[in-house]
Amino acid sequence: MTSEAAELLEVLWGRASTAPVSASQLRVLFILEHNDGVNLRTLADALGSTPPSTSRLCDRLQAVGFVDRRPGVVSRRELRLHLSRRGRAFLAELRARRERALQSVLEQMPTAQRSALLEGLEAFCAAAEAQIQEDDASDVRTA
Question: Greatest CA separation found in the chain?
């Protein structure tokens, strides 16, 4: 059942188009939104990718105006990556489209089932956040 729900969610979110960015580029935008001003190597590590591949992703995002590259404060040779105003607006609109798509489905559910789903999702979010934090702490210890 979980795989079916995940697939249906992907279909709903797919209808809320992420154009003009790919799934990988969207992931970059989400990371930059929460880690503004990271350098390329840190972003590549977060993506599990190489700096050259990550640089190409950022080149495309910069070309559409979603990412800004600025010199670092400490070392002007090091470039810092920032989500641009246009990039932030894109993410806000994407989230609004996704929320509308989900809201449309939720409105078709009986109130009691919608409440049970909300309670389950809150527990899911708490468990997922705990696991992510545990994994992150484990990565730091082994590095």
Answer: 58
